[in-house]
Design goal:
Number of helices: 15
Structural class: alpha+beta
Helix content: 40-55%
Mean pLDDT: 76
Strand order of the largest sheet: 1-2-3-5-4
Order of helices and strands: HHHHEEEHEEHHHEEHHHHHHH
Strand content: 5-15%
């Protein structure tokens, strides 16, 4: 009976699976026994054990090797030893060296002044790195980790990954120079006002700005680090940390209609939220300034109009910029000018609703508003799940924030303008300004004349 229970327990131990941490699929459990298996030696087969066809094939291979060795010896009789070594190097490594040269050489070295341009760009990047390192050296909260490539369309903007020591999370720091016509003055009071403004712009479809610093080299804007990247990365299927000039070179297939509807409606809701908060019109709207986080579109680059940066062409008002963005999401490439009827018919054949909306934006005599775009058939039935349980702060801005928004309310006119009616509107506003200036001059002249008569 004892032997019976012992055999049963032994069988149960063999059926148990070993406790393994990690990928069990590739795990191989070692045997617990310490006995080494004897190595089996292979016996040499005799010629009688092989078939006749196998022996004939082996004789042919041996004869071929003999002829090839004799021909190589005859050809190398007149050559010296170094020449033979060179021939062997060319034979074995010629093709490999040729392929490696094409892989690692830089295209910038082939152009005129390419070496100088490459050195200049390297010096600028090193200077930005030294600036960021020196400014964060005595910072108690942020710690510099690494410098990224030029991942955006601005060549003078530099990106870094920093560590937030208080929250224990990685952040994205963007260092950009301030233009000469910056509408705000960099100071501690301006920083406090900007942070109060950004805290009031908390919305599911707005990418937050966590902190901002004014350095001698420009403004350092700190935002969350999102490994998904931007909407442009989603369209072209590229990695967010790659160089801008390399990751958007080929045309993509575009996004699905359902994705276009959801992301487009979310972008419109974010624009409407900014308009209700008296934020200046966003001429910086493009696919690179829309961050995708957990499948949700969030507007980014809100610091650009506040710092007076020039928009990326084709720069246009919000509705037209949204039209360019909608075309890029569907067609898979970016247009430098408004789409023609041929674009809408050929490129957007698979998405007639998108073509209808773009025709409504670009081909009508009057530019539609954001509210009218939300009511289009393309975005009417989209469900906004993020707004269900979101508690959007409805706080009133203080006087400093309102004054700052008033100072940047009229940005630099976008260039080039892409619609005739927009040009007409701007010309009418300029004409009204001219009439007001003439009226003011006439009133000033009348005041001067009355003062002269009184003096007389």
């Amino acid at each position: 009976m004892f032997n019976l229970y012992q055999s049963i327990n032994k069988k149960e131990d063999q059926d148990k699976q070993p406790d393994v941490i990690g990928h069990e699929r590739f795990y191989q459990a070692r045997s617990r026994s310490t006995k080494k298996k004897k190595r089996v030696t292979r016996r040499t087969h005799s010629a009688a054990e092989f078939s006749a066809s196998t022996l004939a094939a082996a004789n042919k291979r041996a004869a071929f090797r003999t002829r090839s060795q004799s021909s190589e010896n005859k050809s190398d009789e007149g050559k010296s030893t170094p020449q033979r070594v060179d021939s062997l190097v060319k034979l074995f490594f010629g093709k490999r060296q040729q392929g490696s040269g094409q892989k690692h050489e830089y295209s910038a070295l082939k152009t005129d002044g390419g070496v100088e341009k490459f050195r200049e760009e390297r010096q600028i990047r090193n200077g930005a790195f030294i600036t960021c390192r020196n400014n964060l050296e005595n910072n108690d909260r942020y710690e510099l980790k690494t410098q990224l490539d030029i991942i955006g369309s601005r060549p003078d903007k530099h990106w870094f990954i920093v560590q937030d020591n208080i929250l224990g999370a990685e952040r994205l720091l963007a260092l950009l120079p301030l233009p000469s016509n910056c509408p705000i003055s960099p100071s501690q009071a301006t920083k406090d006002t900007l942070l109060a403004l950004f805290r009031g712009l908390q919305h599911p479809y707005i990418h937050p700005i966590l902190d901002i610093e004014f350095w001698d080299a420009g403004a350092a804007v700190i935002t969350p680090l999102n490994p998904t990247g931007s909407l442009k990365d989603l369209i072209y299927g590229s990695a967010w940390h790659e160089d801008y000039e390399k990751k958007y070179t080929s045309k993509s297939e575009g996004l699905s209609l359902r994705t276009i509807q959801c992301l487009g409606r979310q972008i419109l809701e974010g624009l409407l939220f900014l308009r209700n908060r008296y934020f200046p019109q966003l001429y910086h709207l493009h696919s690179g300034n829309v961050i995708i986080q957990n499948g949700v579109a969030r507007l980014a680059g809100l610091e650009n109009p506040l710092l007076g940066l020039i928009p990326k062409p084709p720069s246009a008002p919000e509705t037209l910029s949204f039209g360019y963005l909608l075309f890029e999401m569907t067609a898979g490439y970016e247009l430098p000018e408004p789409p023609t009827p041929a674009h809408l018919q050929l490129e957007l054949e698979r998405a007639p609703k998108v073509a209808e909306t773009l025709d409504y934006i670009f081909q009508t005599t009057r530019t539609p508003t954001l509210d009218e775009l939300v009511r289009c058939d393309l975005f009417r039935g989209v469900e906004l799940r993020e707004l269900r349980g979101a508690s959007i702060i409805q706080s009133t801005s203080n006087s400093d924030v309102l004054d700052l928004l008033e100072s940047v309310k009229n940005p630099v006119p976008p260039s080039p303008l892409r619609r005739k009616d927009v040009v007409v509107v701007i010309e009418e506003t300029r004409l009204e300004d001219i009439i007001e200036e003439e009226d003011n001059e006439d009133s000033d002249c009348s005041v001067i004349e009355t003062s002269k008569t009184r003096n007389r």
